[in-house]
């Protein structure tokens, strides 16, 4: 059965802890591939592998693992599945006030407070941060009681002080403001997720949202800061990047497998998104791997 709205995920802290920390081997965390949200902020470290992720309205392709911080009630999906080939995944979930309200107002916590506030748009961290924190994250998972909390705060402090990051939905994604927006926009996101290889018309998504086409276009742009065409093209381009990196298909085959029905339009759109042609991207990706 296809999901039509984001699933609310109930999260319970580990016994004897104020937050949750889980380790999944390879593709064990298959529920992450479903569209879901929760009030807890979520830190996800993927050890190795590659795949697609969608956080808010931003679709991305990651390689050599991933490190992301996802804000409270920010819908997300697709970090790992059976095709990711990751070694493991560590997921930390905590409420914004998990240490109480007053501690976040202290001067020592100012940078971490700013980090958690910025996570409302979703944050992806760069390669240097991933490498520097991998052992610390594993040590935190193995630790218990106060030692676990201290190690977690040390990790948050590193993240709060790095400049090697990118905010995925910077100030323009308002999905968490109202439940009705949450339901409607995720109905659309799931439709694109399931149908991106086919032709998707404005008429069908406007009907899905129970809106006229002009109203839908204004609504979608306000929520996501993108036109619907831009969003669909981005989803298709990210899928093509994954295929270029992982499958021995011709570029022409990848064009059609990604939902584009015009090869020259695919090339043009790919270059606009990546500043490279598909053949350049594949060649450079292979050189990096080798």
UniProtKB/TrEMBL annotation:
Molecular function terms, GO-annotated: DNA-binding transcription factor activity; sequence-specific DNA binding
Keyword Plastid annotated: no
InterPro entries: Homeodomain-like_sf (IPR009057), HTH_AraC (IPR018060), HTH_AraC-typ_CS (IPR018062), RmlC-like_jellyroll (IPR014710), RmlC_Cupin_sf (IPR011051), Tscrpt_reg_AraC-type_HTH (IPR020449)
Key word Cytoplasm present: no
Lineage: Bacteria, Pseudomonadati, Bacteroidota, Flavobacteriia, Flavobacteriales
Limits of the HTH araC/xylS-type domain: 186-284
A Pfam family this chain is assigned to: HTH_18
Species the sequence originates in: Cloacibacterium normanense
Keywords: DNA-binding, Transcription, Transcription regulation
Record's protein name: Helix-turn-helix domain protein
């Amino acid at each position: 059965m296809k999901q039509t709205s984001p699933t609310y995920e109930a999260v319970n802290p580990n016994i004897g802890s104020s937050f949750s920390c889980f380790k999944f081997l390879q593709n064990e965390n298959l529920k992450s591939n479903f569209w879901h949200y929760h009030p807890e902020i979520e830190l996800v470290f993927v050890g190795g592998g590659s795949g697609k992720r969608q956080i808010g309205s931003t679709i991305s392709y990651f390689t050599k693992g991933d490190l992301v911080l996802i804000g409270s009630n920010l819908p997300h999906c697709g970090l790992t599945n059976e095709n990711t080939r990751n070694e493991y995944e560590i997921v930390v979930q905590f409420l914004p006030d998990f240490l109480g309200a007053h501690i976040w107002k202290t001067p020592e916590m100012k940078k971490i407070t700013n980090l958690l506030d910025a996570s409302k748009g979703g944050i992806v961290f760069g390669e240097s941060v991933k490498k520097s924190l991998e052992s610390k994250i594993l040590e935190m998972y193995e630790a218990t009681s106060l030692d676990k909390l201290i190690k977690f705060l040390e990790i948050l402090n590193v993240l709060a002080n790095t400049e090697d990051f990118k905010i995925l939905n910077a100030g323009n994604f308002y999905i968490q403001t109202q439940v009705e927006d949450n339901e409607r926009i995720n109905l659309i996101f799931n439709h694109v997720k399931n149908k991106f290889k086919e032709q998707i018309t404005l008429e069908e998504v406007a009907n899905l949202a129970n809106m006229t086409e002009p109203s839908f276009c204004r609504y979608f742009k306000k929520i996501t800061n993108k036109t619907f065409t831009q969003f669909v093209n981005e989803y298709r381009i990210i899928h093509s990047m994954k295929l270029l990196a992982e499958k021995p298909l011709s570029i022409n085959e990848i064009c059609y497998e990604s939902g584009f029905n015009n090869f020259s339009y695919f090339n043009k759109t790919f270059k606009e998104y990546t500043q490279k042609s598909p053949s350049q991207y594949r060649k450079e990706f292979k050189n990096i791997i080798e």
